[in-house]
Amino acid sequence: MPIKPLKVGVTGGIGSGKTLVCNIFNTFGIPIYNADRRAKDLMVKDQKVIEAIKNHFGEEAYLDKKKLNGNYLSAKVFNDKRKLKLLNGIVHPAVAADFDNWSQNQVGKLYIIKEAALLIESGSYKTLDYLVTITAPVENRVERVLSRDIHRSKQDVLDIISNQLNDGEKADKSNFIIDNSGQNLLIPQVLKIHEFLISLKQAG
User: Fold this and answer.
1) Fewer CB within 10 Å: C terminus or N terminus of the chain?
2) Could you give phi then psi for residue 57, rounded to 5 degrees?
3) CA-based nearest residue to 134, from 20, 24, 48, 16
4) pLDDT the model gives residue 91
């Protein structure tokens, strides 16, 4: 009978270092599902998602048949929690179904990772076996995002952070915490979690 992999979530606020941590897991041969990236793909490739977004936000949500009008959509939902909840209600179920399809193809893997900023906020962490949260001071996160996203201002980043759960709230629901403040090396922290998950699966 094929091995059914453990499903592990990796989350953290903007600028916390999710992609870096997942890249380390990937060097150990662990498949990574980037939920945020797949969400963007589904918003321009999944016809049901496209139609739902157009129905609720207007044809202006798309610049053409294949390109999302990100600036327009962001302006619509950024300061309107009702509209943000509506958009998430369209996209998150599509991502969940896409992840399920992807995970079924990861036969023989001991564990797989779902990387997403809103694993807890969306409730999708409840479908996973373990949750890893990456923490870092706000000033570090802002600096990282500004060096990466030249189109954002400091206030933009702070506004995004204010709309996400804080590190303490995420940590309360997590099995593992990775400190990416720069005070502790990342690789040993990731390796410790990796070795635990491997030993757990091999023992079971």
Assistant:
1) N
2) -120, -5
3) 16
4) 94
